[in-house]
């Protein structure tokens, strides 16, 4: 009787570890569901929107300008942020705010990306903390799940003029 009970407990623990490993690999390498909060990505992503973030792009270095990414916050490593990639390494980017009279530019250093929120007037982004190391990217948002009336692929940046091709 005791042997039978121990056998069931160990089988249960074995299955739990196996399924835990599978779930970890799925969330780490494939992707997951993310609830976005804050106004920095409005109008593209509203507060409390639910999106799907895929993680393969970051592993294969397939992040491109215009992609919306989930990144470990450079200011608080315990939290994640959601921003749009404006520049990749070597790109020339506008580092000033839209309201600044004189525009300043800089180049994104090797191994970094330049991130900005779509709501330029209410976003803490690379204009505040500078270029972000590529290694902090957690995933690329590819699909909005909730609200259902907005289900689908994400729209283009309302700030497309911020992308420089020089």
TrEMBL record:
* Xref: CDD domains: S26_SPase_I
- Record-linked SUPFAM superfamilies: LexA/Signal peptidase
Q: Which GO terms describe its biological process?
A: protein processing involved in protein targeting to mitochondrion; signal peptide processing
The Peptidase S26 domain covers 16-97, 104-146
Q: Does the keyword Manganese apply?
A: no
Which residues are the active-site ones?
40, 83
Q: Does the keyword Lyase apply?
A: no
Mind listing the UniProt keywords for this protein, alphabetically?
Answer: Hydrolase, Membrane, Mitochondrion, Mitochondrion inner membrane, Protease
Q: What is the E.C. number?
A: 3.4.21.-
InterPro entries, A to Z:
LexA/Signal_pep-like_sf, Mito_IMP1_subunit, Pept_S26A_signal_pept_1, Peptidase_S26
What are the GO MF terms of this UniProt record? Answer: serine-type endopeptidase activity
Compartments it resides in: Mitochondrion inner membrane
Pfam families, sorted: Peptidase_S26
Supply the enzyme class, top level: hydrolase
Q: Which domain of life is it from?
A: Eukaryota
For this record, an example GO cellular component is: mitochondrial inner membrane peptidase complex
Concerning its family, UniProt says: Belongs to the peptidase S26 family. IMP1 subfamily.
User: NCBIfam families of this UniProt entry?
Assistant: sigpep_I_bact
**What quaternary arrangement does the UniProt entry report?**
Heterodimer of 2 subunits, IMMPL1 and IMMPL2.
Q: What is this protein called?
A: Mitochondrial inner membrane protease subunit
**Which gene holds the coding sequence for this protein?**
Immp1l
